[in-house]
Design goal:
With about 240 residues, the chain is α/β, with parallel strands linked by helices. It has one domain (about 1-245): Class I glutamine amidotransferase (GATase) domain (Rossmann fold). Helices cover about 40% and strands about 20% of the residues. The protein has helices spanning about 15-25, 35, 65-80, 90-95, 120, 180-190, 190-200, 200-230, 235-245; strands at about 1-5, 25-30, 50, 85, 100-105, 110-115, 135-140, 145, 150-155, 165, 170-175. Strand 3, helix 3 (about 65-80) and strand 4 form a beta-alpha-beta unit. This is Type 1 glutamine amidotransferase.
């Protein structure tokens, strides 16, 4: 199982997703576009694509010149029937790839929050194990409209489109399900000034908030990660890729 991971920002971390990919024996190839802008040459070398978060917006083409090609790449993976996962910024890039609107600065969320699962989400492989609501970590200011043909899987009062699916295994999650306790601790250590600005008091209250929410969020995140990894279907992806060639 070969998985390409696009890192849009230094030291983003895979957290729960790393654990699920390791359990599946996946081979991960990192593309650190924040450093060199290099993306996979085509879709044939990988069975799945993961696009992680970052501080830029999905429309920052002038300052992040690789973005238009990344948008096209996500669409090519999806159209070939391969599993695609966009997390936070990655979900916004995925929405752009499928013709939706990016809405900048309209949906600010930080920290552990409750997410509601839609009826479609309760029946979907990604979220079906989580019931009607779960707690997960958020860090975003932007959001997006639902792409045409996409199924809304989860929602919140701040961001209506918290998770969606296109086709068999193309998923976007606005929330950071990969951000388990270890990742949150890393972010807390690396970005204290940013966190203090966007979420006053969170750093001081972190221990209490983590004690209240982290265990449930970690369990939900790992369940989501395992569910997506189980949808990486090498044979189906290869068949659909050949048919579309």
């Amino acid at each position: 199982m070969r998985v390409a991971v696009i890192e849009n920002m230094r030291n983003t971390g895979l957290g729960a997703l790393a654990a699920a990919l390791d359990e599946a024996g996946a081979e991960i190839e990192w593309f650190r576009v924040w450093q060199d802008g290099i993306l996979p040459l085509d879709i044939s070398g990988h069975d799945a694509l993961v696009v992680l978060g970052g501080e830029q917006s999905a429309l920052d083409d002038e300052t992040h010149s690789y973005l238009p090609e990344l948008v096209r790449l996500t669409r090519r993976f999806g159209d070939a029937g391969k599993a695609v996962l966009g997390i936070c910024l990655g979900s916004q890039i995925l929405a752009r790839a499928y013709g939706a609107d990016n809405l900048l600065g309209t949906a600010c969320e930080f920290g552990w929050h409750g997410i509601g699962v839609t009826g479609e989400g309760r029946a979907d492989p990604l979220l079906s194990a989580l019931g009607g609501e779960f707690t997960i970590f958020e860090w975003h200011a932007d959001t997006f409209s639902l792409p045409e043909g996409a199924v809304r899987l989860a929602s919140s009062a701040v961001a209506e489109n918290q998770a969606f699916r296109i086709g068999r295994a193309v998923y976007g999650t606005q929330f950071h399900f990969e951000a388990n306790s270890a990742v949150v601790e890393q972010w807390k250590a690396e970005f204290p000034d940013t966190i203090a600005r966007i979420a006053p008091g969170w750093l001081e209250n972190h221990a209490e908030l983590a004690a209240r929410h982290a265990v449930a969020a970690d369990a939900a995140g790992l369940a989501i990660a395992r569910a997506w990894v189980s949808l990486i279907d090498r044979q189906e992806a290869e068949t659909l890729s050949q048919a579309s060639a």
